[in-house]
Structures are given as structure tokens and as C-alpha cells.
Amino acid sequence: MKRLPKYTPAEVRNDPYGFTYKEMSEVIGENEAKALYEELYKQLPRKKNLSMLVKNICKSSDTEKYVYELKDNKYIETVFIKRRDGGTVCVSTQVGCPVGCIFCESGRNGFVRNLTSSEIVQQIILLRRKVNRIVFMGMGEPLFNYDNLIKAIHILRDRYGLNFPTDGITISTVGPVDQLKKLREEHLKIQLTISLHAATQSARNRIIPHMRIYAIEDVVKQALSYSERHNRKIVFAYLLLPGINDRPSDVRQLAKWFRGKKVMINVLQYNPTSNSRIKAPQKREIVAFKHQLEQAGLEVTM
Ligand code: SF4
């Protein structure tokens, strides 16, 4: 069995959100750990337990964007999307991002550092909102911060803490193959969304340049393997970029991979920003592409 790292009580008390209940109990004893978990997860957040603070909240009718300041004066964003009863939170896992998707502002300035498990967990705690769904899809590529992400998920699921249902947790990833293999072997039946965005290697290299080290077929194969092992429907996100990934041959390739599999394709609309280098599709182009996929026998949403 894997040995727990050695911690001191001071480490636990300085950054308690970074500890699983089991780790905490090993260091400060079960009764103390239960009391501290109660304070951390069932009461209003206390300043002495936090290592980050809410710097700004930008509210609209259906979303709230939280800007958090970390201890080293770096900033991250967390988005809360309101639903009828509670909401979905989009959680960041890194400061910056090393992936460099051509459509993304977060990755434009490159990678700065991984978030700690504690910083991942605190993004949810500090919202002070009823959260029904947690999606790891904010700033950063979650699977490039694998250990801290998995530990944060264990902390969030702990029955002495938030007791968050595994079913309500989604990892949205560009699909680094080695990490997908590792995730397949975890005893965690979480939902998986793969940002595929292409049906050929050359289109994917253009859209997600830093993922060119992985063959697109391997990403697909590994994601389908996760689906089979955990009996989960996988969502493949597909940002439609006219002239890049919307040819009839792309539809045929997607059908070849996914027809008859537990897969849903989520066709996404690109929303250009002021710095955009690519053209946004017209609504009718998205509808037509969705229709072609459906005609090819695939389950599609948009
Ligand atoms: S992986 Fe996510 S955060 Fe990183 S560049 Fe791509 S879209 Fe942006």
C-alpha cells in the first residue's frame, strides 16, 4: 500500500484544504480531523484556513466570474453558471496553460505553474454557492496537473467533507494519452469530455498545436477505452472552424470512430474576441454540420 507523505500538524493547519481526511487523521488524530473537516466544509470559510482570496466578482444574469488572488500574487478565474437549483462551477487547474489552443485567451501567455490541490478545492469553497456540478475546464489543462487534480477530487468526495458525488464531476481535457491511461485505472467513475476539435492530425495540430506529440487516433482510442472500462458516455467537444474541420471527410471519420459507441459529439460555436485570429462560423453552418453528423448515425448536441 502507498505510504502517506510525512506532514507536521503545522503544515496541516497552515493549508488545511490541501489534505485528505485520511492524511489529516494520520497527523492530528481522527477526532481533530473530523472537527477540522466540519469547520472547513460545513461552515462559512474562515480566513485563517485560506491561502487565496476573492479579488473580484463579475456578475451577469446567468454567470458569476470569480477572480482569485493566490499567495504568490498570481490570478486565476472560476466561473459559476447558475441553474434552476444551484449551479455548475468551471474550475481552473493551472495558472496559464501550456497547450496553446488557437481559440483560447487563457493559454495565450503560456504556462506559469500548477495549482495545488488546496487551491483547486478552495475555488469551490469560496463561491459559497450550491454547486451541483464541478467541471475541470477553467484555466489550464487538468490532466497536466494530474496528481493535484486527483487528490482534489478525493478531498471533494470525502464523506466527512463536501461529500460531492463522483457522478457530478467532469474532467474536460485535450486528452494527453499517458494521463488518460492512468485515469482509466483510477477507481473514479468521473465524467470525461475530450476536446477533440478535429478529425485529422493536421487539423488538430493547427487547432491545438502543443498536442501534436499525440496521435489523434491514440487520443480517441484511449478515451473510448475509458468509456468501456467505466461504462460512461464520453463527450467529444468539437469547436467548428469553417474551412479547417468541417469537411465531409471529417464527418465520415467521426462516424467511423464513434458510430455505435457510447459517445456524444458536442458541436461548439466559436466566439471570437478582439484578438481573434480565426473566423467564426455562421449559425447555419453549425446547424448543417450537426445535421450531417446525425445523418451519419451519431448522437450530437450543440
Ligand atoms: S487547454 Fe483549455 S485553457 Fe489550455 S489553451 Fe486549450 S482551451 Fe485554453
UniProtKB/TrEMBL annotation:
<dbReference type="GO" id="GO:0046872">
    <property type="term" value="F:metal ion binding"/>
</dbReference>
<keyword id="KW-0408">Iron</keyword>
<comment type="similarity">
    <text>Belongs to the radical SAM superfamily. RlmN family.</text>
</comment>
<dbReference type="InterPro" id="IPR006638">
    <property type="entry name" value="Elp3/MiaA/NifB-like_rSAM"/>
</dbReference>
<feature type="domain" description="Radical SAM core">
    <location>
        <begin position="83"/>
        <end position="302"/>
    </location>
</feature>
<dbReference type="GO" id="GO:0051539">
    <property type="term" value="F:4 iron, 4 sulfur cluster binding"/>
</dbReference>
<dbReference type="GO" id="GO:0008173">
    <property type="term" value="F:RNA methyltransferase activity"/>
</dbReference>
<dbReference type="InterPro" id="IPR004383">
    <property type="entry name" value="rRNA_lsu_MTrfase_RlmN/Cfr"/>
</dbReference>
<keyword id="KW-0411">Iron-sulfur</keyword>
<dbReference type="InterPro" id="IPR013785">
    <property type="entry name" value="Aldolase_TIM"/>
</dbReference>
<dbReference type="Pfam" id="PF04055">
    <property type="entry name" value="Radical_SAM"/>
</dbReference>
<keyword id="KW-0808">Transferase</keyword>
<keyword id="KW-1015">Disulfide bond</keyword>
<dbReference type="InterPro" id="IPR058240">
    <property type="entry name" value="rSAM_sf"/>
</dbReference>
<keyword id="KW-0949">S-adenosyl-L-methionine</keyword>
<dbReference type="InterPro" id="IPR007197">
    <property type="entry name" value="rSAM"/>
</dbReference>
<dbReference type="InterPro" id="IPR040072">
    <property type="entry name" value="Methyltransferase_A"/>
</dbReference>
<keyword id="KW-0489">Methyltransferase</keyword>
<protein>
    <submittedName>
        <fullName>23S rRNA (Adenine(2503)-C(2))-methyltransferase RlmN</fullName>
    </submittedName>
</protein>
<dbReference type="GO" id="GO:0030488">
    <property type="term" value="P:tRNA methylation"/>
</dbReference>
<keyword id="KW-0479">Metal-binding</keyword>
<keyword id="KW-0963">Cytoplasm</keyword>
<dbReference type="GO" id="GO:0070475">
    <property type="term" value="P:rRNA base methylation"/>
</dbReference>
<dbReference type="GO" id="GO:0005737">
    <property type="term" value="C:cytoplasm"/>
</dbReference>
<keyword id="KW-0004">4Fe-4S</keyword>
